[in-house]
């Protein structure tokens, strides 16, 4: 079917690799190559430049890619409208999320959605905020959840929920004994941070800069789990979502430093690409999530 071949072609272009495209589509590399070869025979021209490290589009390939995206979008939309006639929610739903949301909030909500709509095939990709935004812009995700802010004009942006950020310290840290911590008391401490591109890192940098807090030293981890474990082990202070450290706070493995007269909050956002039609699965997923109490 020509739609299958076009889907393979688009996936190869977006992954820049035959093997990676095959893994996503459940095809062998020879199977992917056969689809591409058949397309090139159909079009009467070379569509891709192949090398051991990457795949690049030819000029003809770029033209086909643009139209293939439109064809696949129309095909999916036609299927959606036909399924609506039967009042069924089906199809594939590829969701993206930054780490805090993807690891601590979405799993339970995805389980509830899957139970209610068993005909929807769900896939979750977790990355930092910048990676997730980039994937949405490249049409690799149907809908995504990020921490922090974006004003990208290509995106539909829906506020999802408020997230309380707290300062955490190792058990027994001197500041943990204080009933309320002033900003000046945070000077010259060692901090454990997320990597650049993370929503948590952006929030931490903004807070420290706005508060005029200078660091004695800092360590960088590329996951909130790593940051949490490092704080618990005594490496330093960190700013994390309360979602991430609920169990550790209850178990005394981490201490919360309470700022005097200040609540630290950020926004979780739902985003999707404006150019992608909203499938029934996406529509119902967003609707169900917004209906769930967000605490």
Automatic annotation (TrEMBL):
Residues of the HTH lysR-type domain: 1-58
Pfam family, one: LysR_substrate
Keyword Cell membrane recorded: no
Keywords for the protein's UniProt record, in alphabetical order: DNA-binding, Transcription, Transcription regulation
Recorded family membership: Belongs to the LysR transcriptional regulatory family.
This protein's name: LysR family transcriptional regulator
């Amino acid at each position: 079917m020509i739609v299958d071949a076009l889907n393979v072609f688009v996936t190869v272009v977006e992954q820049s690799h035959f093997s990676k495209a095959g893994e996503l589509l459940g095809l062998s590399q020879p199977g992917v190559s056969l689809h591409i070869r058949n397309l090139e025979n159909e079009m009467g021209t070379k569509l891709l430049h192949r090398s051991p490290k990457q795949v690049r589009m030819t000029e003809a390939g770029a033209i086909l890619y643009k139209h293939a995206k439109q064809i696949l979008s129309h095909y999916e939309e036609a299927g959606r409208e036909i399924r609506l006639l039967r009042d069924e929610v089906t199809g594939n739903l590829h969701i993206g999320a930054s780490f805090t949301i993807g690891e601590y909030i979405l799993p339970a909500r995805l389980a509830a959605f899957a139970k209610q709509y068993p005909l929807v095939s769900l896939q979750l990709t977790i990355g930092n905020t910048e990676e997730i935004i980039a994937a949405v812009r490249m049409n690799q995700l149907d809908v995504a959840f990020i921490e922090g802010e974006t004003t990208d004009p290509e995106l539909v942006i829906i506020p999802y929920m408020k997230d309380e950020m707290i300062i955490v310290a190792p058990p027994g840290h001197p500041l943990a004994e204080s009933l309320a911590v002033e900003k000046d008391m945070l000077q010259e401490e060692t901090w454990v941070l997320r990597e650049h591109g993370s929503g948590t890192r952006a929030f931490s940098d903004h807070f420290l800069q706005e508060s005029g807090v200078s660091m004695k030293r800092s360590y960088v981890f590329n996951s909130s789990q790593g940051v949490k474990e490092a704080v618990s082990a005594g490496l330093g202070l960190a700013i994390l979502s309360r979602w991430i450290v609920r169990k550790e706070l209850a178990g005394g493995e981490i201490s919360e430093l309470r700022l005097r007269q200040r609540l630290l909050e950020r926004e979780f956002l739902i985003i999707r690409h404006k150019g992608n039609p909203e499938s029934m699965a996406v529509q119902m997923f967003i609707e169900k999530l917004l209906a769930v109490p967000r605490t």
